[in-house]
Write a structure and sequence with these properties.
The complex is a heterodimer of chains A (178) and B (393). By secondary structure, chain A is mainly α. Chain A is built from 8 helices and no strands. The N and C termini of chain A lie far apart (46 Å). Chain B is built from 15 helices and no strands. The chains are: A mainly alpha (178), B mainly alpha (393).
Protein backbone atom coordinates (compact mmCIF):
# COMPACT_ATOMS: atom_id res chain seq x y z
CA UNK A 1 0.00 0.00 0.00
CA UNK A 2 2.89 2.36 0.80
CA UNK A 3 4.43 1.73 -2.62
CA UNK A 4 1.10 2.41 -4.29
CA UNK A 5 0.63 5.66 -2.39
CA UNK A 6 4.18 6.88 -3.01
CA UNK A 7 4.17 5.93 -6.72
CA UNK A 8 0.78 7.57 -7.31
CA UNK A 9 1.75 10.76 -5.48
CA UNK A 10 5.10 11.07 -7.27
CA UNK A 11 3.59 10.34 -10.70
CA UNK A 12 0.75 12.79 -10.05
CA UNK A 13 3.15 15.49 -8.87
CA UNK A 14 5.29 15.12 -12.00
CA UNK A 15 2.32 15.09 -14.36
CA UNK A 16 0.76 18.08 -12.57
CA UNK A 17 4.01 20.09 -12.86
CA UNK A 18 4.20 19.13 -16.53
CA UNK A 19 0.67 20.27 -17.38
CA UNK A 20 0.98 23.47 -15.34
CA UNK A 21 4.27 24.58 -16.85
CA UNK A 22 5.24 26.23 -20.12
CA UNK A 23 9.01 26.52 -19.55
CA UNK A 24 11.62 23.96 -20.49
CA UNK A 25 12.70 23.34 -16.88
CA UNK A 26 9.15 22.82 -15.71
CA UNK A 27 8.39 20.38 -18.54
CA UNK A 28 11.64 18.45 -17.96
CA UNK A 29 11.16 18.26 -14.18
CA UNK A 30 7.55 17.16 -14.64
CA UNK A 31 8.46 14.43 -17.13
CA UNK A 32 11.29 13.15 -14.91
CA UNK A 33 9.15 13.04 -11.77
CA UNK A 34 6.25 11.39 -13.57
CA UNK A 35 8.64 8.78 -14.99
CA UNK A 36 10.18 8.13 -11.57
CA UNK A 37 6.70 7.71 -10.08
CA UNK A 38 5.82 5.19 -12.79
CA UNK A 39 9.14 3.40 -12.25
CA UNK A 40 8.48 3.19 -8.50
CA UNK A 41 5.12 1.58 -9.20
CA UNK A 42 6.69 -0.90 -11.63
CA UNK A 43 9.59 -1.75 -9.29
CA UNK A 44 7.20 -3.72 -7.07
CA UNK A 45 6.91 -6.49 -9.68
CA UNK A 46 9.38 -5.80 -12.52
CA UNK A 47 12.66 -4.06 -11.69
CA UNK A 48 14.12 -4.22 -15.20
CA UNK A 49 11.04 -2.50 -16.65
CA UNK A 50 11.19 0.07 -13.85
CA UNK A 51 14.82 0.86 -14.69
CA UNK A 52 13.93 1.24 -18.37
CA UNK A 53 11.07 3.63 -17.60
CA UNK A 54 13.18 5.73 -15.23
CA UNK A 55 16.03 5.90 -17.75
CA UNK A 56 13.66 6.78 -20.60
CA UNK A 57 12.01 9.53 -18.58
CA UNK A 58 15.23 11.15 -17.36
CA UNK A 59 16.99 10.90 -20.72
CA UNK A 60 13.90 12.21 -22.52
CA UNK A 61 13.64 15.11 -20.08
CA UNK A 62 17.33 15.98 -20.60
CA UNK A 63 16.83 15.96 -24.38
CA UNK A 64 13.72 18.10 -23.98
CA UNK A 65 15.78 20.78 -22.21
CA UNK A 66 17.09 21.85 -25.66
CA UNK A 67 13.83 23.43 -26.74
CA UNK A 68 11.11 25.76 -25.51
CA UNK A 69 10.97 28.90 -23.41
CA UNK A 70 13.66 29.31 -20.76
CA UNK A 71 12.89 28.84 -17.06
CA UNK A 72 9.97 27.17 -15.28
CA UNK A 73 6.96 29.31 -16.25
CA UNK A 74 4.79 27.51 -13.73
CA UNK A 75 1.07 28.26 -13.72
CA UNK A 76 0.84 30.82 -16.52
CA UNK A 77 -2.44 32.78 -16.84
CA UNK A 78 -5.35 30.50 -17.71
CA UNK A 79 -4.12 27.55 -15.63
CA UNK A 80 -7.10 27.37 -13.27
CA UNK A 81 -8.95 24.57 -15.16
CA UNK A 82 -5.76 22.49 -15.20
CA UNK A 83 -5.24 23.04 -11.44
CA UNK A 84 -8.77 21.80 -10.81
CA UNK A 85 -8.22 18.85 -13.16
CA UNK A 86 -4.99 17.95 -11.33
CA UNK A 87 -6.79 17.95 -7.98
CA UNK A 88 -9.59 15.77 -9.38
CA UNK A 89 -7.05 13.33 -10.86
CA UNK A 90 -5.28 13.04 -7.49
CA UNK A 91 -8.54 12.24 -5.72
CA UNK A 92 -9.57 9.77 -8.44
CA UNK A 93 -6.12 8.15 -8.36
CA UNK A 94 -6.11 7.71 -4.59
CA UNK A 95 -9.72 6.50 -4.56
CA UNK A 96 -8.96 4.05 -7.39
CA UNK A 97 -5.84 2.89 -5.58
CA UNK A 98 -7.87 1.89 -2.56
CA UNK A 99 -10.05 -0.36 -4.74
CA UNK A 100 -7.38 -2.39 -6.57
CA UNK A 101 -4.98 -5.01 -5.28
CA UNK A 102 -2.12 -7.16 -6.53
CA UNK A 103 1.52 -6.59 -7.45
CA UNK A 104 0.66 -4.61 -10.62
CA UNK A 105 -1.71 -2.23 -8.82
CA UNK A 106 0.83 0.55 -7.99
CA UNK A 107 2.00 0.74 -11.61
CA UNK A 108 -1.53 0.73 -12.98
CA UNK A 109 -2.87 3.42 -10.65
CA UNK A 110 0.16 5.67 -11.21
CA UNK A 111 -0.05 5.11 -14.97
CA UNK A 112 -3.77 5.89 -15.11
CA UNK A 113 -3.16 9.18 -13.26
CA UNK A 114 -0.40 10.17 -15.70
CA UNK A 115 -2.48 9.10 -18.73
CA UNK A 116 -5.42 11.29 -17.68
CA UNK A 117 -3.28 14.36 -17.00
CA UNK A 118 -1.00 14.06 -20.02
CA UNK A 119 -4.03 13.34 -22.23
CA UNK A 120 -5.68 16.54 -21.02
CA UNK A 121 -2.48 18.47 -21.73
CA UNK A 122 -2.19 16.99 -25.23
CA UNK A 123 -5.74 17.98 -26.09
CA UNK A 124 -5.12 21.62 -25.23
CA UNK A 125 -1.40 22.28 -25.72
CA UNK A 126 -0.74 24.79 -28.50
CA UNK A 127 3.08 24.62 -28.23
CA UNK A 128 5.30 21.93 -29.69
CA UNK A 129 7.47 21.45 -26.59
CA UNK A 130 4.47 21.08 -24.27
CA UNK A 131 2.81 18.61 -26.64
CA UNK A 132 6.04 16.60 -26.91
CA UNK A 133 6.48 16.40 -23.13
CA UNK A 134 2.86 15.32 -22.70
CA UNK A 135 3.20 12.73 -25.48
CA UNK A 136 6.38 11.35 -23.89
CA UNK A 137 4.66 11.05 -20.49
CA UNK A 138 1.68 9.39 -22.21
CA UNK A 139 3.94 6.83 -23.93
CA UNK A 140 5.71 6.03 -20.64
CA UNK A 141 2.42 5.63 -18.79
CA UNK A 142 0.81 3.43 -21.46
CA UNK A 143 3.96 1.29 -21.53
CA UNK A 144 3.82 0.94 -17.73
CA UNK A 145 0.35 -0.62 -18.01
CA UNK A 146 1.68 -3.67 -19.86
CA UNK A 147 4.32 -6.34 -19.35
CA UNK A 148 8.10 -5.74 -19.42
CA UNK A 149 8.39 -5.27 -23.19
CA UNK A 150 5.66 -2.62 -23.18
CA UNK A 151 7.51 -0.58 -20.55
CA UNK A 152 10.72 -0.76 -22.59
CA UNK A 153 8.85 0.35 -25.71
CA UNK A 154 7.25 3.20 -23.79
CA UNK A 155 10.71 4.33 -22.70
CA UNK A 156 11.99 4.10 -26.29
CA UNK A 157 9.00 6.14 -27.47
CA UNK A 158 9.58 8.83 -24.83
CA UNK A 159 13.24 9.05 -25.80
CA UNK A 160 12.44 9.11 -29.52
CA UNK A 161 9.83 11.84 -29.15
CA UNK A 162 12.23 14.10 -27.29
CA UNK A 163 14.98 13.40 -29.82
CA UNK A 164 12.83 14.55 -32.76
CA UNK A 165 14.73 17.28 -34.59
CA UNK A 166 13.19 20.71 -34.87
CA UNK A 167 13.67 22.68 -38.08
CA UNK A 168 14.19 26.36 -37.21
CA UNK A 169 12.18 27.60 -40.19
CA UNK A 170 9.12 25.54 -39.23
CA UNK A 171 9.42 26.49 -35.55
CA UNK A 172 9.59 30.17 -36.51
CA UNK A 173 6.57 29.80 -38.80
CA UNK A 174 4.59 28.15 -35.99
CA UNK A 175 5.58 30.90 -33.57
CA UNK A 176 4.57 33.58 -36.10
CA UNK A 177 1.20 31.90 -36.66
CA UNK A 178 0.51 32.00 -32.91
CA UNK B 1 12.09 32.77 -41.62
CA UNK B 2 14.48 33.75 -44.39
CA UNK B 3 17.02 34.97 -41.82
CA UNK B 4 16.95 31.59 -40.11
CA UNK B 5 17.47 29.76 -43.38
CA UNK B 6 20.63 31.69 -44.34
CA UNK B 7 23.34 29.21 -45.41
CA UNK B 8 26.77 29.44 -43.81
CA UNK B 9 29.56 26.83 -44.24
CA UNK B 10 29.08 25.63 -40.65
CA UNK B 11 25.32 25.33 -41.13
CA UNK B 12 25.78 23.53 -44.46
CA UNK B 13 28.14 21.05 -42.78
CA UNK B 14 25.64 20.39 -40.01
CA UNK B 15 22.84 19.98 -42.56
CA UNK B 16 24.92 17.45 -44.52
CA UNK B 17 25.57 15.43 -41.36
CA UNK B 18 21.89 15.63 -40.41
CA UNK B 19 20.93 14.38 -43.89
CA UNK B 20 23.35 11.44 -43.54
CA UNK B 21 21.94 10.70 -40.08
CA UNK B 22 18.39 10.72 -41.44
CA UNK B 23 19.34 8.33 -44.23
CA UNK B 24 21.03 6.00 -41.73
CA UNK B 25 17.99 6.06 -39.45
CA UNK B 26 15.80 5.42 -42.48
CA UNK B 27 17.92 2.40 -43.43
CA UNK B 28 17.66 1.04 -39.87
CA UNK B 29 13.87 1.54 -39.93
CA UNK B 30 13.54 -0.19 -43.30
CA UNK B 31 15.68 -3.09 -42.03
CA UNK B 32 13.44 -3.40 -38.94
CA UNK B 33 10.37 -3.49 -41.19
CA UNK B 34 11.97 -6.14 -43.41
CA UNK B 35 12.84 -8.21 -40.33
CA UNK B 36 9.24 -8.05 -39.08
CA UNK B 37 7.78 -8.88 -42.51
CA UNK B 38 10.06 -11.82 -43.28
CA UNK B 39 10.92 -13.19 -39.83
CA UNK B 40 9.87 -16.84 -39.48
CA UNK B 41 7.17 -17.54 -36.86
CA UNK B 42 8.48 -18.15 -33.34
CA UNK B 43 11.89 -16.56 -33.96
CA UNK B 44 13.65 -16.20 -30.60
CA UNK B 45 14.67 -12.56 -30.31
CA UNK B 46 14.55 -12.14 -26.54
CA UNK B 47 11.51 -9.91 -26.95
CA UNK B 48 8.52 -11.61 -28.58
CA UNK B 49 8.03 -9.62 -31.79
CA UNK B 50 5.77 -11.29 -34.32
CA UNK B 51 3.24 -9.47 -36.47
CA UNK B 52 0.03 -11.33 -37.40
CA UNK B 53 0.10 -12.58 -41.02
CA UNK B 54 -2.52 -10.13 -42.41
CA UNK B 55 -0.65 -7.23 -40.78
CA UNK B 56 2.60 -8.37 -42.43
CA UNK B 57 1.01 -8.21 -45.85
CA UNK B 58 -0.49 -4.79 -45.05
CA UNK B 59 2.94 -3.65 -43.88
CA UNK B 60 4.43 -4.73 -47.22
CA UNK B 61 1.67 -2.78 -48.97
CA UNK B 62 2.51 0.27 -46.81
CA UNK B 63 6.16 -0.02 -47.87
CA UNK B 64 5.03 -0.10 -51.51
CA UNK B 65 2.83 2.99 -51.00
CA UNK B 66 5.59 4.84 -49.15
CA UNK B 67 7.92 4.19 -52.09
CA UNK B 68 5.30 5.80 -54.36
CA UNK B 69 4.94 8.76 -51.96
CA UNK B 70 8.71 9.32 -52.14
CA UNK B 71 8.82 8.88 -55.93
CA UNK B 72 6.02 11.41 -56.49
CA UNK B 73 7.35 14.00 -54.03
CA UNK B 74 8.98 17.18 -55.39
CA UNK B 75 12.73 16.65 -55.97
CA UNK B 76 14.02 18.89 -53.14
CA UNK B 77 11.95 16.98 -50.57
CA UNK B 78 12.70 13.49 -51.85
CA UNK B 79 15.98 12.96 -49.99
CA UNK B 80 14.52 14.05 -46.66
CA UNK B 81 11.45 11.88 -47.24
CA UNK B 82 13.51 8.72 -47.83
CA UNK B 83 14.87 8.88 -44.27
CA UNK B 84 11.52 9.82 -42.74
CA UNK B 85 9.70 7.08 -44.64
CA UNK B 86 12.20 4.43 -43.51
CA UNK B 87 11.92 5.43 -39.85
CA UNK B 88 8.10 5.60 -39.99
CA UNK B 89 7.93 2.19 -41.64
CA UNK B 90 10.25 0.69 -39.00
CA UNK B 91 8.16 2.11 -36.13
CA UNK B 92 4.93 0.96 -37.80
CA UNK B 93 6.43 -2.53 -38.16
CA UNK B 94 7.28 -2.69 -34.44
CA UNK B 95 3.80 -1.32 -33.57
CA UNK B 96 2.19 -4.20 -35.49
CA UNK B 97 4.60 -6.79 -34.09
CA UNK B 98 4.54 -5.65 -30.45
CA UNK B 99 3.68 -8.42 -27.98
CA UNK B 100 0.64 -6.69 -26.47
CA UNK B 101 -1.73 -3.79 -27.09
CA UNK B 102 -0.07 -1.59 -24.45
CA UNK B 103 3.27 -1.85 -26.24
CA UNK B 104 1.60 -1.09 -29.58
CA UNK B 105 -0.15 1.95 -28.11
CA UNK B 106 3.07 3.28 -26.52
CA UNK B 107 4.89 3.08 -29.85
CA UNK B 108 1.89 4.55 -31.65
CA UNK B 109 2.56 7.79 -29.76
CA UNK B 110 6.08 7.80 -31.26
CA UNK B 111 4.66 7.20 -34.74
CA UNK B 112 2.25 10.10 -34.18
CA UNK B 113 5.19 12.34 -33.25
CA UNK B 114 7.19 11.26 -36.31
CA UNK B 115 4.24 11.87 -38.59
CA UNK B 116 3.54 15.30 -37.07
CA UNK B 117 7.20 16.29 -37.34
CA UNK B 118 7.41 15.34 -41.02
CA UNK B 119 4.74 17.90 -42.02
CA UNK B 120 5.93 21.15 -43.55
CA UNK B 121 2.91 23.22 -42.57
CA UNK B 122 0.36 23.32 -39.78
CA UNK B 123 0.84 23.13 -36.05
CA UNK B 124 2.83 20.20 -34.67
CA UNK B 125 0.52 19.97 -31.65
CA UNK B 126 -2.59 19.82 -33.87
CA UNK B 127 -1.13 17.02 -35.96
CA UNK B 128 -0.04 15.04 -32.89
CA UNK B 129 -3.38 15.33 -31.06
CA UNK B 130 -5.65 12.88 -32.90
CA UNK B 131 -3.35 9.85 -33.27
CA UNK B 132 -2.10 10.37 -29.70
CA UNK B 133 -5.72 10.30 -28.52
CA UNK B 134 -6.06 7.04 -30.41
CA UNK B 135 -3.07 5.60 -28.54
CA UNK B 136 -4.51 6.80 -25.23
CA UNK B 137 -7.85 5.11 -25.89
CA UNK B 138 -6.18 1.88 -27.05
CA UNK B 139 -3.92 1.83 -23.95
CA UNK B 140 -6.72 2.51 -21.47
CA UNK B 141 -9.02 0.15 -23.38
CA UNK B 142 -6.45 -2.65 -23.19
CA UNK B 143 -6.18 -2.14 -19.41
CA UNK B 144 -9.97 -2.30 -18.95
CA UNK B 145 -10.47 -5.13 -21.47
CA UNK B 146 -8.39 -7.47 -19.29
CA UNK B 147 -10.26 -6.65 -16.08
CA UNK B 148 -12.43 -9.24 -14.34
CA UNK B 149 -15.64 -7.18 -14.27
CA UNK B 150 -17.73 -7.64 -17.43
CA UNK B 151 -18.94 -3.99 -17.71
CA UNK B 152 -15.35 -2.75 -17.49
CA UNK B 153 -14.26 -5.29 -20.11
CA UNK B 154 -17.00 -4.08 -22.45
CA UNK B 155 -16.05 -0.43 -21.88
CA UNK B 156 -12.42 -1.34 -22.62
CA UNK B 157 -13.33 -3.13 -25.84
CA UNK B 158 -15.36 -0.13 -27.04
CA UNK B 159 -12.46 2.18 -26.09
CA UNK B 160 -10.07 0.10 -28.22
CA UNK B 161 -12.47 0.30 -31.20
CA UNK B 162 -12.81 4.08 -30.75
CA UNK B 163 -9.02 4.37 -30.34
CA UNK B 164 -8.52 2.56 -33.62
CA UNK B 165 -10.93 4.98 -35.32
CA UNK B 166 -9.09 7.95 -33.80
CA UNK B 167 -5.66 6.65 -34.81
CA UNK B 168 -6.83 5.96 -38.37
CA UNK B 169 -8.41 9.42 -38.67
CA UNK B 170 -11.98 8.17 -39.09
CA UNK B 171 -15.28 9.45 -37.79
CA UNK B 172 -15.99 10.53 -35.09
CA UNK B 173 -12.45 11.90 -34.98
CA UNK B 174 -11.84 13.07 -38.53
CA UNK B 175 -9.77 16.23 -38.35
CA UNK B 176 -9.31 18.69 -41.19
CA UNK B 177 -5.75 20.00 -41.14
CA UNK B 178 -3.90 22.45 -43.30
CA UNK B 179 -2.87 20.73 -46.50
CA UNK B 180 0.73 20.93 -47.61
CA UNK B 181 2.19 17.87 -49.28
CA UNK B 182 1.32 14.23 -49.61
CA UNK B 183 3.71 13.09 -46.87
CA UNK B 184 2.40 15.61 -44.36
CA UNK B 185 -1.25 15.18 -45.27
CA UNK B 186 -3.63 13.89 -42.62
CA UNK B 187 -4.56 11.16 -45.13
CA UNK B 188 -1.30 9.45 -44.19
CA UNK B 189 -3.16 7.85 -41.26
CA UNK B 190 -6.19 6.37 -43.03
CA UNK B 191 -4.21 5.66 -46.20
CA UNK B 192 -0.86 4.40 -44.99
CA UNK B 193 -0.54 3.56 -41.30
CA UNK B 194 -4.14 2.72 -40.41
CA UNK B 195 -4.64 -0.53 -42.39
CA UNK B 196 -1.68 -2.42 -40.87
CA UNK B 197 -2.61 -1.09 -37.43
CA UNK B 198 -6.27 -2.16 -37.75
CA UNK B 199 -5.35 -5.66 -38.92
CA UNK B 200 -2.77 -6.09 -36.14
CA UNK B 201 -5.06 -4.83 -33.36
CA UNK B 202 -8.03 -6.90 -34.52
CA UNK B 203 -5.88 -10.02 -34.76
CA UNK B 204 -4.47 -9.47 -31.24
CA UNK B 205 -7.62 -8.36 -29.46
CA UNK B 206 -10.27 -10.59 -31.03
CA UNK B 207 -9.20 -14.05 -29.77
CA UNK B 208 -8.21 -12.70 -26.33
CA UNK B 209 -11.71 -11.39 -25.61
CA UNK B 210 -13.60 -14.66 -25.32
CA UNK B 211 -17.28 -14.00 -24.59
CA UNK B 212 -16.92 -10.24 -25.02
CA UNK B 213 -15.79 -10.60 -28.63
CA UNK B 214 -19.34 -9.78 -29.70
CA UNK B 215 -19.06 -6.30 -28.18
CA UNK B 216 -15.97 -5.59 -30.28
CA UNK B 217 -17.72 -6.83 -33.42
CA UNK B 218 -20.81 -4.72 -32.73
CA UNK B 219 -18.67 -1.63 -32.09
CA UNK B 220 -16.82 -2.18 -35.36
CA UNK B 221 -20.03 -2.64 -37.37
CA UNK B 222 -21.51 0.53 -35.83
CA UNK B 223 -18.37 2.58 -36.52
CA UNK B 224 -18.20 1.08 -40.01
CA UNK B 225 -21.77 2.03 -40.90
CA UNK B 226 -21.28 5.60 -39.65
CA UNK B 227 -18.12 6.01 -41.75
CA UNK B 228 -19.64 4.29 -44.77
CA UNK B 229 -22.76 6.48 -44.88
CA UNK B 230 -20.82 9.67 -44.15
CA UNK B 231 -18.16 8.77 -46.71
CA UNK B 232 -20.47 7.78 -49.56
CA UNK B 233 -22.90 10.69 -49.16
CA UNK B 234 -20.06 13.12 -48.38
CA UNK B 235 -18.06 12.15 -51.46
CA UNK B 236 -21.17 12.53 -53.61
CA UNK B 237 -22.20 15.94 -52.20
CA UNK B 238 -18.71 17.37 -51.45
CA UNK B 239 -18.16 20.91 -52.78
CA UNK B 240 -14.59 20.20 -53.93
CA UNK B 241 -12.77 17.22 -55.41
CA UNK B 242 -10.29 17.24 -52.50
CA UNK B 243 -13.15 16.88 -50.00
CA UNK B 244 -14.62 14.10 -52.15
CA UNK B 245 -11.30 12.21 -52.00
CA UNK B 246 -11.19 12.55 -48.21
CA UNK B 247 -14.72 11.21 -47.88
CA UNK B 248 -13.91 8.34 -50.24
CA UNK B 249 -11.26 7.12 -47.78
CA UNK B 250 -13.94 7.12 -45.06
CA UNK B 251 -16.26 5.11 -47.29
CA UNK B 252 -13.60 2.44 -47.94
CA UNK B 253 -12.81 2.28 -44.23
CA UNK B 254 -16.51 2.03 -43.45
CA UNK B 255 -16.79 -1.18 -45.48
CA UNK B 256 -13.56 -2.49 -43.94
CA UNK B 257 -14.73 -1.83 -40.36
CA UNK B 258 -18.04 -3.58 -41.04
CA UNK B 259 -16.00 -6.51 -42.37
CA UNK B 260 -13.80 -6.56 -39.24
CA UNK B 261 -16.99 -6.79 -37.20
CA UNK B 262 -18.33 -9.80 -39.11
CA UNK B 263 -17.04 -13.36 -38.75
CA UNK B 264 -15.52 -15.53 -41.50
CA UNK B 265 -15.78 -13.97 -44.96
CA UNK B 266 -16.21 -10.53 -43.39
CA UNK B 267 -12.65 -10.55 -42.11
CA UNK B 268 -11.35 -11.65 -45.49
CA UNK B 269 -13.30 -8.79 -47.11
CA UNK B 270 -11.91 -6.28 -44.61
CA UNK B 271 -8.37 -7.49 -45.31
CA UNK B 272 -8.80 -7.09 -49.09
CA UNK B 273 -10.43 -3.67 -48.66
CA UNK B 274 -7.64 -2.39 -46.40
CA UNK B 275 -5.02 -3.67 -48.85
CA UNK B 276 -6.87 -1.84 -51.61
CA UNK B 277 -6.88 1.41 -49.56
CA UNK B 278 -3.06 1.30 -49.34
CA UNK B 279 -2.23 0.01 -52.80
CA UNK B 280 -4.98 1.59 -54.93
CA UNK B 281 -6.79 4.52 -53.31
CA UNK B 282 -3.75 6.21 -51.77
CA UNK B 283 -1.58 6.01 -54.94
CA UNK B 284 -4.51 7.29 -57.02
CA UNK B 285 -5.00 10.15 -54.58
CA UNK B 286 -1.31 11.00 -55.05
CA UNK B 287 -1.88 10.99 -58.81
CA UNK B 288 -4.83 13.34 -58.38
CA UNK B 289 -2.94 15.87 -56.27
CA UNK B 290 -1.81 18.09 -59.20
CA UNK B 291 -5.47 18.52 -60.16
CA UNK B 292 -6.62 18.93 -56.54
CA UNK B 293 -4.07 21.66 -55.92
CA UNK B 294 -5.33 23.34 -59.13
CA UNK B 295 -2.01 23.13 -60.97
CA UNK B 296 -3.79 21.24 -63.73
CA UNK B 297 -7.36 21.17 -65.16
CA UNK B 298 -9.71 18.18 -64.82
CA UNK B 299 -9.89 15.83 -67.79
CA UNK B 300 -12.10 12.95 -68.87
CA UNK B 301 -10.97 10.14 -71.15
CA UNK B 302 -9.91 6.54 -70.74
CA UNK B 303 -7.87 7.04 -67.56
CA UNK B 304 -10.84 8.69 -65.85
CA UNK B 305 -13.16 5.80 -66.78
CA UNK B 306 -10.73 3.04 -65.82
CA UNK B 307 -9.73 4.87 -62.63
CA UNK B 308 -13.40 5.34 -61.71
CA UNK B 309 -14.05 1.64 -62.26
CA UNK B 310 -11.13 0.70 -60.03
CA UNK B 311 -12.21 3.14 -57.31
CA UNK B 312 -15.81 1.95 -57.46
CA UNK B 313 -14.87 -1.69 -57.02
CA UNK B 314 -16.24 -2.86 -60.36
CA UNK B 315 -15.12 -6.28 -61.66
CA UNK B 316 -12.35 -7.20 -62.43
CA UNK B 317 -10.79 -4.65 -60.05
CA UNK B 318 -9.84 -5.20 -56.41
CA UNK B 319 -12.94 -3.92 -54.68
CA UNK B 320 -15.24 -6.46 -56.36
CA UNK B 321 -14.29 -9.71 -54.56
CA UNK B 322 -14.10 -7.78 -51.28
CA UNK B 323 -17.64 -6.46 -51.75
CA UNK B 324 -18.92 -9.90 -52.72
CA UNK B 325 -17.36 -11.47 -49.61
CA UNK B 326 -18.73 -8.69 -47.41
CA UNK B 327 -22.27 -9.10 -48.72
CA UNK B 328 -22.01 -12.86 -48.21
CA UNK B 329 -20.89 -12.39 -44.58
CA UNK B 330 -23.54 -9.74 -43.90
CA UNK B 331 -26.32 -11.91 -45.37
CA UNK B 332 -25.42 -14.68 -42.92
CA UNK B 333 -25.61 -12.32 -39.92
CA UNK B 334 -28.58 -10.05 -40.74
CA UNK B 335 -30.21 -9.34 -44.10
CA UNK B 336 -31.02 -5.66 -43.29
CA UNK B 337 -27.29 -5.09 -42.85
CA UNK B 338 -26.64 -6.64 -46.27
CA UNK B 339 -29.36 -4.45 -47.76
CA UNK B 340 -27.81 -1.29 -46.28
CA UNK B 341 -24.38 -2.31 -47.57
CA UNK B 342 -25.74 -3.00 -51.06
CA UNK B 343 -27.46 0.42 -51.11
CA UNK B 344 -24.23 2.13 -50.07
CA UNK B 345 -22.30 0.24 -52.78
CA UNK B 346 -24.76 1.46 -55.42
CA UNK B 347 -24.57 5.03 -54.14
CA UNK B 348 -20.79 4.69 -54.37
CA UNK B 349 -20.98 4.76 -58.18
CA UNK B 350 -22.11 8.40 -58.04
CA UNK B 351 -18.79 9.76 -56.85
CA UNK B 352 -16.41 7.29 -58.50
CA UNK B 353 -16.38 9.04 -61.92
CA UNK B 354 -15.81 12.39 -60.22
CA UNK B 355 -12.69 11.00 -58.52
CA UNK B 356 -11.52 9.28 -61.71
CA UNK B 357 -11.79 12.56 -63.61
CA UNK B 358 -9.43 14.24 -61.17
CA UNK B 359 -6.54 11.89 -61.99
CA UNK B 360 -3.58 13.80 -63.39
CA UNK B 361 -1.63 13.00 -66.54
CA UNK B 362 1.20 15.42 -66.02
CA UNK B 363 4.57 13.76 -66.36
CA UNK B 364 5.69 10.17 -66.71
CA UNK B 365 6.01 9.64 -62.95
CA UNK B 366 2.32 10.30 -62.31
CA UNK B 367 1.25 8.11 -65.22
CA UNK B 368 3.48 5.25 -64.06
CA UNK B 369 2.08 5.60 -60.51
CA UNK B 370 -1.50 5.48 -61.85
CA UNK B 371 -0.59 2.41 -63.92
CA UNK B 372 0.97 0.71 -60.90
CA UNK B 373 -2.14 1.44 -58.81
CA UNK B 374 -4.42 0.02 -61.53
CA UNK B 375 -2.20 -3.07 -61.84
CA UNK B 376 -2.36 -3.56 -58.06
CA UNK B 377 -6.15 -3.25 -58.19
CA UNK B 378 -6.31 -5.84 -60.98
CA UNK B 379 -4.02 -8.17 -59.03
CA UNK B 380 -6.31 -7.88 -56.00
CA UNK B 381 -9.40 -8.43 -58.12
CA UNK B 382 -8.22 -11.29 -60.31
CA UNK B 383 -6.23 -13.21 -57.70
CA UNK B 384 -7.99 -12.64 -54.37
CA UNK B 385 -7.18 -16.19 -53.27
CA UNK B 386 -3.45 -15.51 -53.54
CA UNK B 387 -3.69 -12.47 -51.24
CA UNK B 388 -6.00 -14.22 -48.82
CA UNK B 389 -3.53 -17.11 -48.69
CA UNK B 390 -0.65 -14.75 -47.96
CA UNK B 391 -2.67 -13.31 -45.09
CA UNK B 392 -3.62 -16.80 -43.83
CA UNK B 393 -7.33 -16.00 -44.25
Amino acid sequence: MAALLLATLLAWLGAAIMILSDGRRGLAAGLSLAGLGLALGLAVHDRAAAAAVAAGAVAGALLGLRRGARGWRLMPPGSTPLVILSAICLVVGLAGGSLVAGPAAPARVAATTVILLSGARLMGAPRREAALAAAAALALAIGSLGAGAAAVMGAVAALGLNALPERPSIAAAEEARR
Amino acid sequence: VSQLDVCTPAREGRAAWAARGRLLMGAVGAAAAAAVIWSPPGLATGVHLEAPRPARVALTASAFALALVVALAPRPRRRRLVGQAGVALGVLAVVTAAPDLEASAALLVLLAGLSAASAEAGSFADRLRRPALGALLIGLGALLAHSAAAPLTRAGVVAVALGLAAAAGLLPYQQRLEEDDAAGSDLVWPGLFGPALALAISARLGPALGREQGVYQEAMVALGLVNLIWGVVGAWRAPTDAAAWRCSFLADWGLALVGLGLPGAGRAAAYLLLLSVVTVRLPMYLCARPVLTQCEPRRGGALAVVGAAALAGVAPFGGFPARALLLEAATRVAWPLALALAAAMLLWLLHAYRLGGSLSRSGPRTLVAAGVALAASLALGVLPGLWLGLGAL
